[in-house]
Design brief:
It is built from 10 helices and no strands. The chain has about 210 residues and is mostly helical. The protein has a single domain, classed as Alpha Horseshoe (Serine Threonine Protein Phosphatase 5, Tetratricopeptide repeat). Helix 3 (about 40-50) packs across helix 5 and helix 8 runs parallel beside helix 10. The structure holds adenosine-5'-diphosphate (ADP) and magnesium ion (2 copies). GO terms for molecular function: glycerone kinase activity.
């Protein structure tokens, strides 16, 4: 694994910084087709995670995923809270008692994204965060199984995330609040897809540094 939970305080700091930097733009996206609270919801979760960061740094990955999931579930309201909690709790379930490796993570991550799909009854093409998480999970798994070098894996994952965000622009929203707008949801990228991509980019930067 390129990162241990000891790096969690740095990771969450980097995620906080990117969300703060792009907060206004994300709010505008969620205002255009949602209720405008998305970045605030995530920032609440990030603050809660920061307050537990040293504790999480002392755990192994499976225990860290569980703690992250429970913290996010308690702190974040809105659709994104239960979806991210599902992602992390599923990561706990699928990494427990497995060797700590990028192969284990890539497989667990794809299962976790599948759990998010199930939880939100959504899939790619519905203008949600899944338009980033699904291709990212597939790209990660493929690049890892091809035995690519870490920097190549990171480049490919970041490219998949960017393409995923952009793909949401002309989609019709069929899940979440944006679906209430029907055709008017077209023409704006999805806020949850954008924050997913920003967080992936921040994590990749931390791994590279
Ligand atoms: P809320 O819509 O409850 O205000 P947020 O604003 O925090 O919650 O999150 C909205 C984001 O959640 C959307 O931009 C979209 O990416 C994602 N989302 C909403 N519903 C779903 C769903 N059923 N499956 C996957 N992602 C969803
Ligand atoms: Mg919202
Ligand atoms: Mg809301």
């Amino acid at each position: 694994m390129p990162l241990s939970p000891a790096k969690f305080p740095d990771l969450i700091e980097a995620i906080s910084a990117t969300l703060n930097e792009h907060a206004d733009a994300i709010t505008q996206l969620d205002q255009a087709i949602g209720d405008g609270d998305h970045v605030f919801n995530l920032q609440r979760g990030v603050e809660a995670l920061q307050s537990h960061a040293t504790e999480i740094a002392d755990l192994d990955w499976p225990a860290a995923w569980q703690k992250i999931g429970m913290t996010v579930m308690a702190a974040i309201g809105g659709a994104s809270g239960s979806l991210y909690a599902t992602l992390f709790i599923s990561l706990n379930k699928n990494t427990k008692d497995k060797p700590v490796s990028i192969q284990t993570f890539a497989e667990a991550f794809q299962l976790a994204v599948a759990a998010v799909k199930q939880r939100g009854k959504a899939d790619v093409g519905e203008k949600t965060m899944l338009d980033v998480w699904v291709p990212v999970a597939e790209t990660l798994k493929r690049a890892v199984s091809e035995g690519q070098q870490l920097n190549v894996i990171l480049d490919q994952v970041c490219a998949a995330a960017e393409a995923g965000v952009e793909s949401t622009r002309d989609m019709l929203a069929t899940k979440g609040r944006a679906s209430f707008l029907g055709e008017r949801s077209k023409g704006h990228i999805d806020a949850g897809a954008k924050t997913a991509q920003l967080m992936i980019e921040a994590i990749a930067r931390q791994i590279r540094s």
